[in-house]
Amino acid sequence: MGENDVVVRRGEAISSGSGPIIVATRNDDLDSVIEATPRKRRPDLVFIQNGMLQPFLDERGLSDNTQVLVYFAVAKRGDAPQDGGLTQAHGPHAAAFAERMTSHGISCSLPDRPQFRQSMLEKLVWICAYMLVGARHKTNVGGVERQHRAEVDALVTELAGAGAAELGIEPAAGGAPLPERLAEYSRSVSVFPTAVKEFVWRNGWFWSLSSRRLAEGRPDPCPRHTALLKEVAPELVT
């Protein structure tokens, strides 16, 4: 945080002043945060949540708000953050957010919108693939990367292709292949647990693609993902 930043806790009023408002809350609480924000201050909201946020923001007239892809983690309160090296921010307050991160030793790049959309999909693919495979095998992120690489890499490739087609974007070009980039990040947060959660925002987005295509009598674009969901969390896809 900057020296003049103010922490606003649940239920407290949000200032009518100026500057970025970094929203650090669960996805399901976003509506209440938006409602608690004065209308003229809503463009200052900075969203750092995981998952597919864009449709939610579009529906609320916040399409151009600052979004952040967080690639750092704190194992427990009081610990120093572990920098995954891939954090990105895009939007009106992206530079201000990046300044706060770098002042605490966390790297943060500022891509243009097309690059950010590519990276947004990649982060969604990572969390959906690694959490689902980890839940299946009852292991943490590091266990997935070390013991189930072939399985998670195949799922990463499937989800990335389906997501890019749905969003009408090109996969990121250059550098290491996507499965290897995500595996490298996974090694930096290897101790973190896995679970299928915040379904609507994460795996549920890919399941919505599958269920819609299947209802139309068309092939499932994510058959591996669908099969794993039915095995690991059948109550979510009935």
The general outline is globular
What's the number of helices? 9
What is the succession of H and E elements? EHEHEEEEHHHHHHH
Taken together, the total number of domains comes to: 2
Low-confidence segments? none
Mean pLDDT: 92
User: Based on the structure given, which CATH architecture of the largest domain is correct?
Assistant: Orthogonal Bundle
Ends apart, CA distance between termini? 44 Å
- Please state the structural category: alpha/beta
Residue fraction in strands: 5-15%
Topology:
Layout: E1 21-23, H1 30-36, E2 45-47, H2 54-59, E3 66-69, E4 72-73, E5 82-83, E6 88-90, H3 94-102, H4 113-137, H5 141-147, H6 149-167, H7 178-188, H8 203-215, H9 223-232
Parallel strand pairs: 1-2, 2-3
Antiparallel strand pairs: 3-6, 4-5
Helix pairs in contact: 4-5, 4-6, 4-9, 6-7
Kindly summarize this structure in a few lines.
The protein has 238 residues and is an alpha/beta fold. Helices cover 45% and strands 7% of the residues.
Folded structure, characterized:
This protein is of the alpha/beta class and 238 residues long. The protein folds into two domains: 21-102, no CATH class; 113-236, N-(1-d-carboxylethyl)-l-norvaline Dehydrogenase, domain 2. It is built from nine helices and six strands. The strands form two sheets. A four-stranded mixed β-sheet has the order 1-2-3-6, sandwiched between helices. It has a two-stranded antiparallel ribbon with strand order 4-5. Helix 1 links the parallel strand 1 and strand 2 (45-47). The longest helix has 25 residues, at 113-137. It starts with 20 loop residues before the first strand and ends in a 6-residue tail after the last helix.
